[in-house]
Amino acid sequence: MSASPNISELTKTASQVRRDIVRMVHAVQSGHPGGSLGCTEYFVAMYFHILKHDKNFNADGIGEDLFFLSNGHISPVWYSVLARSGYFSVDELNTFRKLDSRLQGHPATEEGLPGIRIASGSLGQGLSAAIGAAQAKKLNNDSNFVYVLMGDGEQNEGQVWEAAMYAAHHKVDNIIATIDFNRQQIDGPTEEVMSLGSLKAKWEAFGWKVIESKGNDMAALISKIEEAKSLCGKGQPILNLMSTEMGFGVDFMVGTHKWHGIPPSDEELANALGQLEETHGDY
Amino acid sequence: MLIVNYQLFLLNLALQKPLLTLTFLLVTKLTFTEKKDTRSGFGAGLHELGKTNKNVVALCADLTGSLKMDAFKKDFPERFFQVGIAEANMIGLAAGMTIGGKIPFTGTFANFSTGRVYDQIRQSIAYSGKNVKICASHAGLTLGEDGATHQILEDLGMMKMLPHMTVINPCDYNQTKAATLAIADYEGPVYLRFGRPKWPVFTPADQKFEIGKAITLVEGKDVSIFATGHMVWQAIEAEAILAEKGISAEIINIHTIKPLDEKAILASVKKTGCAVTAEEHQMNGGLGDSVAQTLSRNLPTPLEMVAVNDSFGESGTPEELLVKYGLSPNDIVNAVLKAIKRK
């Protein structure tokens, strides 16, 4: 991690990650491209600038920052970023969702994929695990941070709010939770499926310090996450309400729930790749 | 038969059949001087772990007193986490705390430890291979007056179906304490089931708990009785009645439902030729099912099951409920007679 981010380099990496995402999903004609594309800046910012992490993976993560993905269905973006940052060979992205792969449809520890510390996919569980890990860090006198990403549709799950209440009560102030606020879920816009009301007001009412960020603007996002870090250690957990556009980076996938869990056809793949520069070499 | 005071039982037996009493005492040597709740065995074990293992942490969902976790909370407040009435979150927190080397023990009623949080256990603990100890009190009918909403009879089945999960159901205070200590030294997810009522304490206080190793309490030649949890004592009482009828029953304490000690089960049945299982659980999915699988695959043998037969419980005293739902010593005796007849 450097003091100031190289936005140009991070943006190039993001383009390659987006190519990986659409190629992975296309290859097996299954997976979740929309949310993955929308969160690409966040993942690249985290793994290539924010996180203090060791690609020689240690599951306990003592002395490192920890990252948890609660909305596990956006596994393509995580797998790409883990591979591109050296946790495993980028060639292994070829195995995504195939038999005998470590790259399961939803992230898992069972096959021993470096970088994954707990399974996710069934929604609503990641925040609890991240808070537990944050409390273990405190017991271990480990001053590093714990990060967790959730979906906005995932806010429908009751367990999220159990965890929210708990973290504020126990003053878990070494955690930065982020919501991918793309206003879409499988059945449609969040406002149609299950109105979220004001997420900011809800989280503040639960006792969290809330910051708002723009998730598809690399420089602005990094600045906001740095701000979130500076707010840690003050007796309050931090919530980063990160506005994104589902499908960002591929024009025909942007801003609709349609691409939540649909793979592109051959023609659509070619169209998408035409919009995304190959910067670090395809796998 | 209701749960009898053991001394009274022996006195009656001695008056009526002095020789049989002598034989009974010589053969079984099983007696008890006090009754204690198995949940207190858990509390005592957890407190001891607080002293001996700095990585042990405890989480409780607003039932600290009921789970007997007060002593741990008092002496190790920095390692005790009050979660409130939010069991799903508790399971997730516990899974997360293992990342960094902690050994979390979660505590709530068996119903809220399993059925309420099945998916959380499945994904965050079992599938993720997390070293969490799910400690569950007030299991089964002997919860008593609170009724069927709280009397879970499906928990063993749910837990044993999960890959990676170890399932333990000790029989008395001493064994519950020993099991609590033992699971801290075992790496992997464990479901530890215990209960509310005061129950005869008959296993040695210094008996080491070996996960997955059945304990033969009484040797016999006519029938094998495989019992778990509170039903082990019921089986011991049944054995005395059977002895009076001239039937020699072997009593084996299956404290670990998974992994099942198949070797011990098969060795016993090979000798006796028939078997009875006894558990405070649904017949579907419990110990009886596991034993039936073992026997049918290896050594087809007449088997009778003493368990709740596809129904919910109700309010009542533990003793009344055990009789009404067919889990009394007499029910075990009748099952034995039936099994022997089928040989």
State the assembly state of the protein chains: heterodimer
Could you tell me the CATH topology label of the largest domain in chain B.
Rossmann fold
> How many strands appear in the DSSP assignment of chain B?
14
Spatial shape of chain A:
globular
How large is the radius of gyration of chain B?
19 Å
Largest sheet of chain A: 5 strands, parallel
Poorly predicted spans of chain B: none
In CATH terms, what is the architecture of chain A? 3-Layer(aba) Sandwich
Helix-and-strand structural type of chain A: alpha/beta
The total number of structural domains of chain A is 1
Q: What would the principal axes of the Cα set say about the shape of chain B? A: globular
Average pLDDT level of chain B: 94
Enumerate how many helices of chain A there are, as a single number: 10
> What is the percentage of strand-forming residues of chain B?
15-25%
The proportion of residues forming helix of chain A, as a percent range, comes to 25-40%
- Taking the alpha carbons of the first and last residues of chain A, their distance comes to 25 Å
Radius of gyration of chain A: 18 Å
User: Tally the helices of chain B: what do you get?
Assistant: 14
Which strands sit side by side, in order, in the main sheet of chain B?
3-2-4-5-7-6-12
Q: Write the CATH homologous superfamily of the largest domain in chain B.
A: Thiamin diphosphate (ThDP)-binding fold, Pyr/PP domains
